[in-house]
Amino acid sequence: QVQLVESGGGLVQAGGSLRLSCAASGSIFRVNAMAWYRQAPGKQRELVALISSGGTTNYADSVKGRFTISRDNAKNTVYLQMNSLKPDDTAVYYCNADIDANRRWYSNYWGQGTQVTVSS
Fold this sequence. Notes:
Blueprint: E1 3-7, E2 10-13, E3 18-25, E4 30-39, E5 46-51, E6 57-59, E7 67-72, E8 77-82, E9 91-100, E10 106-110, E11 114-119
Parallel strand pairs: 2-11
Antiparallel strand pairs: 1-3, 3-8, 4-5, 4-9, 5-6, 7-8, 9-10, 9-11
């Protein structure tokens, strides 16, 4: 059974920083792309940042230059460093990953989400 467990959310003032972590655990043979999504109240879930197994990154335009995604393949962990936070960044942040848990194919997994609240 594969699990993604996020940590690092919280309350921060505008202009501040937070670092989110997401660790994948269980019977894992390979991890492909890992990503962070977010969902604000009344809005659809949106992709924030993605990192491939080789380290290629993509960001939503709204976070470019402020957020940095990285990963530690040895620990099956993905991070999201969030700087210069704005009230519009307030949302539940979800970790997502494509994981091979059976030596046959990749399946997509979600974490439980962590709340990030940015006060003005």
